[in-house]
Amino acid sequence: MSDTAEKRPGPHKPSGWAVPGGDPYISIQNVTKRFGEFVAVDNVSLDIYRSELFSLLGASGCGKTTLLRMLAGLEEPTEGRILLDGQDMVGVPPYERPVNMMFQSYALFPHMTVAQNVAFGLKQEGMGKGEVEERVEQMLGLVQLGRFARRKPHQLSGGQRQRVALARALAKRPKLLLLDEPLAALDKKLRESTQFELMNIQEELGVTFIVVTHDQEEAMTLSTRIAVMNEGVIQQLGTPSEVYEYPRTRYVADFIGSVNLFEGTVSGTGAEGMRITAPEAGIDIHVDAGQTDARAGQSVAVAIRPEKIAIAKQDDKPSQGENVIQGIVDEIAYQGSLSIYQVRLADGKLVRVTTPNLTRTAERPIDWEEPVWLSWGRHAGVVLTS
Amino acid sequence: MRKGLHPVTIAMLLFGFAFLYAPIVILIIFSFNEGKLVSVWSGFSPKWYGELLRDPQILSAAWMSLKIAAMNASVATVLGLFGAYALGRFGAFKGRTLFTGMMTAPLVMPDVITGLATLLLFVGLAWQRGMSTITIAHITFSMCFVAVIVRARLSSLDQSLEEAAMDLGARPAKTFLLITIPMLAPALVAAWLLAFTLSLDDLVIASFVAGPGSTTLPMVVFSKVRLGVSPEINALGTLIVLLVTLCIVVAALIFQRQEAQRLADAQMADRAD
């Protein structure tokens, strides 16, 4: 599964997983979790390396939270092993694992002050009073909440509560921090600034983070690597750019960002590229060679990202000979920094195109119901076999 | 259109209030009756309150009732808490449905049956009947009420609080003490008070399992009334009504102030983002 991920070019952050032969820090081996008949996690194997900020991404019910809870020890796997730093974690209760978790609801103790919340884990360790106070102060400083130490959780805003939860989870200096939808309860503006705060803290402390999220943008921004999950199975594993630029399945292509999918059959393969006859597009789509091992005659889908398609007016026909189709503008959405066009092809298929608004007022704006040319390069399409 | 209550609505309201409170109001009025006859007004006097406080039988019965009620409430709260916790937190263990049913059955069991059954048990064990038997009998039925109240609160409690405590290194017993119990405190107080009231109130079960020298207040009242209602009993009733009203008003005021404080805090906090 991961062999293709290593072959592919892409911006790599220098870290453990890029070094061949590096020891995985967390090793999830053939883990299955069943609740009665329901299979929440289905034979998942996954290696995570030291200091990674790893995301488990998927829609609700895909098993990502169950996987996280198994790492915390709050659920036991039905089958399989979980190794943390080489040590088998199965059967080790949550209170004996060097792992801490930040809960989606934050789970702050309402009857304790902010400082008492942060100190809770340290006191369980039997740490001395002075040392506890020092560490609490340090942690609250890290999340910039020093002056709120004596408040109760209900006296804090959502953003502040989120930071208390983070400080509490980090206070024991865990080897591994698990974050369950850490930003889901915040509004959009706050979420963006908190994302960067989270990344800074992670870099500063060097703790390994595993984040569960359903928000693909969040996963893309935060992560060194992403595992896209669906129905208890990891669909794809890779860096954000790999997952975005080279989705391996229709599910991943569709889940991460938006995508145009053209169903078709391979009608020619060669050194210079692959030709796919796509009735929906009304043309043969050409893509670069070496992407897949799809054979001639095989039915596949071609995924093309909206920003990789160029849109041009009727009298401005692109000069390239392939990957050019005609359509009529169905819908235009102006979003400030970019515009989204929905273009109807001859047989009714809708294609999404986004273009950045480079000039303040386009000299010749494209209008509704206007016939246009759509074109893209050979590198734009990704062939999906599953 | 004039805003206000329709005459029919007012009539219904008055009827409802009369239905609920007329007997109590009459009881209170006649506690200040001068004469010995309960149903004939013969002038105002607080003398029956003085009589009441000099009646050793009533005083000792009241003391006995309070002791039993306090002991019953404390033991029932602990046992009910354990039962509720087992049902609410141990997952789907074998026999949970049966346990749940058996836990709530005494709520609908007629007092006569409970009284008879416990009496037979004590007779079978040749247990000396008295204060201890009344207390035990009371615990058997009031712990079910406690369990129901505590379980309702427990199921509305965010389980991730307990998980978070364990995740931070607290063993299950410590989590229970440091997190679960404080979170359940309001329900435990409410359950304690209910168990206390139930015990104070009970006549039937106590009559079955009481022995010589262990007469509770309801038993004394009932036996006195059988010999003819005396204004002394009215005075006692009035005092109890007064006490209960006072407790409810104080509790409501405290709750209201806490709620207002909490709302104000939350509003302040939200402005911080």
From TrEMBL, chain A:
Transmembrane segments: none annotated. GO terms for cellular component: ATP-binding cassette (ABC) transporter complex. Its EC number is 7.6.2.11. It comes from the Bacteria. The complex is composed of two ATP-binding proteins (PotA), two transmembrane proteins (PotB and PotC) and a solute-binding protein (PotD). GO terms for molecular function: ABC-type putrescine transporter activity; ATP binding; ATP hydrolysis activity. InterPro entries: AAA+_ATPase (IPR003593), ABC_SmlMolc_Importer (IPR050093), ABC_transporter-like_ATP-bd (IPR003439), ABC_transporter-like_CS (IPR017871), Mo/tungstate-bd_C_term_dom (IPR008995), P-loop_NTPase (IPR027417), PotA-like (IPR005893), PotA_ATP-bd (IPR017879). This is Spermidine/putrescine import ATP-binding protein PotA. Keywords: ATP-binding, Cell inner membrane, Cell membrane, Membrane, Nucleotide-binding, Translocase, Transport. SMART domains: AAA. Signal peptide: none annotated. Part of the ABC transporter complex PotABCD involved in spermidine/putrescine import. Responsible for energy coupling to the transport system. The keyword ATP-binding applies. It catalyses: ATP + H2O + polyamine-[polyamine-binding protein]Side 1 = ADP + phosphate + polyamineSide 2 + [polyamine-binding protein]Side 1. Belongs to the ABC transporter superfamily. Spermidine/putrescine importer (TC 3.A.1.11.1) family. Residues 26-256 form the ABC transporter domain.
UniProtKB/TrEMBL annotation, chain B:
Residues 62-254 form the ABC transmembrane type-1 domain. The chain crosses the membrane at residues 12-32, 68-87, 107-127, 133-154, 175-197, 203-223, 235-255. InterPro entries: Bact_Polyamine_Transport (IPR051789), MetI-like (IPR000515), MetI-like_sf (IPR035906). Keywords: Cell membrane, Membrane, Transmembrane, Transmembrane helix, Transport. GO terms for cellular component: plasma membrane. It is found in: Cell membrane. GO terms for biological process: transmembrane transport. Pfam families: BPD_transp_1. It is a multi-pass membrane protein. It comes from the Bacteria. Its main location: membrane. Belongs to the binding-protein-dependent transport system permease family. CysTW subfamily. This is ABC transporter permease subunit.
